[in-house]
Amino acid sequence: MSKLMISVSGVRGIFGETLTPEIAINFATHFGVFSQRGKIIVGRDSRISGPEMFRAVSTGLMSVGCDVVDLGIVSTPTVLLAVEESDAKGGISITASHNPAEWNAMKFIGENGMFLFPEKAQEFISSLEKPVDYVEPNKMGKLSEDNEATKRHINKILNISYLNIEKIRKIKFKVVIDSVNGAGGLISPKLLEKLGCEVIELNSEPTGIFAHGAEPLNKNLKQLEQAVKENNADIGFATDPDVDRLSIVSEKGKCLGEEFSLLLAEKFVLSHKRGDIVTNLSSSMASEDIAADFGVKVFRTKVGEINVGKKMMELKSPIGGEGNGGIICPEVHYTRDAPVGMALILGYLAEQDKPISELAEEIPKYYFAKGKIKVEPLKLDSIMEKIPEIFQEYKLDKTDGIKVLGDKFWIHIRKSGTEPIIRVYVESDSTERSQELCRETIEKLVR
Ligand code: MG
Questions:
Q1: What are the CB-based long-range contacts (under 8 Å, 24+) for 223-232?
Q2: Catalytic annotation, pick one of 97, 179, 204, 434
Q3: Per residue in 123-139, pLDDT tens?
Q4: Within this chain, do residues 171 and 309 fall inside the same structural domain, yes or no?
Q5: Does 87 lie in the same domain as 62?
Q6: Which of 339, 361, 383 represents a domain boundary (last residue)?
Q7: Measured in angstroms, how far is the CA atom of residue 76 from the centroid of ligand 1?
Q8: Exposed / middle / buried, residue 428 (Cβ in 10 Å: 0-12, 13-18, 19+)
C-alpha cells in the first residue's frame, strides 16, 4: 500500500486510502492557524475527489476562523496568482499534479503567491503536532466564490510587455491543445483564442478521468501527435492536470520532449530581456549554450520549483524554470505556468516566422540517461561518500546530492527522498555516451 507523503511541497496520497477527509481537515485547520486565521483562497484540479477534498479543506479552514474563497476548478498557477493579487493570507491548491486519477493532494501557498518556502513549509509541518483551537460559532469563517480568477490570469499573460499580441493574432496559428481532461480545458483554449488561434481541443472536459497518462511525456502524447498531423496544425501543446507543465508537438506531429519547452522560452525571452537565468540541477545543459549566446549566466538550484523561483527573485531573472516543462516568467509570477509558456512559444514562432521544428533544430542537442541503484538503507551514505574519490579529477557541485561536471557531460547522483535508492542522471552529447557513463557510474558505486 502507498504511504501518505508529507513533504515541503505538500501532502499527497490516494484519496480515501491514505489521504482521507479527516486528514484533509486536520491539515486545513493547522494551515488556517499557521496563516493567522486570515483569508485563504482554494482552487482544485478536475479530479473526481476534488469536491470532497474541497469540502473537507473549507470546513477545516472556516472552523478556525478563516474566510475561504472558492475558485472552483482552476489551474495551479491560477490559484497562486489569485493569492498574490489579493489580500489573502495564503492559499491551497487541491491537486496531485501529474499523479494518477485516484491520487489527490494539497499544496500550500504563502501570502506572496508562491508555494511555502522550504523553511516555512518545515515550520508548518512542525505545527501539525500542536492542538488546534477552534473558534466560537459566531467567529467561524465565511465561504465565497470567485469565478473571475482564470480571466484575470489570462489578462495578465496578455500583458507581458515583450509579447507582440497583434503579431501573434495576425498569423492565426492553428493549435491543437491536449488538456488530458484536467483543469487545462478551462484556461488553455480561452487563452489561445485570445491569441487569435484556431483551436482544436483534445480532452478538454474537466472530468478528472484522464484520457492517457497524466504526465505530458512523449509516450503519453500519441493522440496529440496524430491530431497535429491530421489537422495540419502549426503546433500541439499538452499540459498536466494542474497546468504547470507544458510539452510541445511540432508541426510534423513529433513530440519535442519536455526539455524543449523551457529552452525555447529562454531563447525568446532573452532576445527581449537580458539577465541571468535559473534552472534546476537536472535540467539540460543546453541552457548554458543559450545563455552564452546572450552573454548571461545560468544559476542551478535544487530540484523543485520553489527553489528555482526563489533564486529567480533574488537575481531578478527574466526567465527560468525546470526541464520537465515548467516555465517561470516573472512578468506574470515566479511560479511554473503552462499557459504562460504557450504564449511565449507562440510569440517566438510569430517573431521568427519559422516552423517550430526548425526552431527546435537550432537548439543544441544533448541526451539523457537514467539509472538507479537499490541499496540497503544503512549503506546509502557510504555509497554517496565514495563519489568524490571516484570523480576526483572533476568539478563537483554539492547543492543537492553530487553533480559531477565534465566536458559536455554531467552526472547527477542523489538519494531518493522517498525510497532506499540512489538515482543517477546523466546528460551528454550522445545517447551512447550517456548510457555508457550511467552504466560505468553505477558499476563504480556498487563495487
Ligand atoms: Mg503539475
A1: 223/178, 224/176, 224/178, 224/249, 224/255, 225/249, 225/253, 225/254, 225/255, 226/253, 227/176, 227/178, 227/200, 227/202, 228/176, 228/253, 229/253, 231/174, 231/176, 231/200, 232/174
A2: 97
A3: 999 999 999 999 999 99
A4: yes
A5: yes
A6: 361
A7: 7
A8: buried
| Res 2 pLDDT > 70 | no
Same domain, 134 and 184: no
**Annotation marks residue 97 as catalytic:** yes
Question: Which CATH number fits the domain that encloses residue 403?
Answer: 3.30.310.50
Write out pLDDT tens, residues 355-385.
Answer: 999 999 999 999 999 999 998 888 889 999 9
Spatial separation of the C-alpha atoms in residues 237 and 228, rounded to whole Å: 10
Query: How far apart are the C-alpha atoms of 163 and 205, rounded to whole Å?
Result: 29
Say which CATH number the domain at 239 has.
3.40.120.10
Distance 37 CA to ligand 1 centre (A): 27
State in Å: Cα 325 to ligand 1 middle.
10
Residue 113's domain comprises: 5-147
The residue type found at 39 is K
Query: In this structure, what C-alpha cell is assigned to residue 440?
Result: 560505468
**Cβ atoms 43, 91 nearer than 8 A:** yes
